[in-house]
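Annex B. Sample input.
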Amino acid sequence: MQSSIMTKNNYPYSFNTKACESCAGNCCIGESGYIWANNEEIIAMSEYLNYKKEDFINEYLLKVRYRFSIKEVPYTGGHRCIFFDLEKRQCRIYAVRPNQCRTFPFWDYFKENINEVESECPGIIRL
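Annex B, continued. Sample output.
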């Protein structure tokens, strides 16, 4: 049986993946920010949704200088990722979500800002 507790070296916390089942999608909603996607991720997402790459980019991505970010839409008191399904409270492209989403909550920024990630994510367990 696989543990639902994830750890990563040099992080002062672990993450209980089971918390996602009862979370409101806090990592997908809130303050506006960039959700970066590289070329391989863009291809995977566009194929997953049966879009031509160019059409997918025009519909779902925002070009920021030389990079692409997934669009956000206004949401109660902030924003949400365009792929966050409000009814199901989950990601519509979870199987092909970008690495930035896959690695949450183990971002370097949170090593020094544990209180912030702890307030956002119910699965954080201080070590």
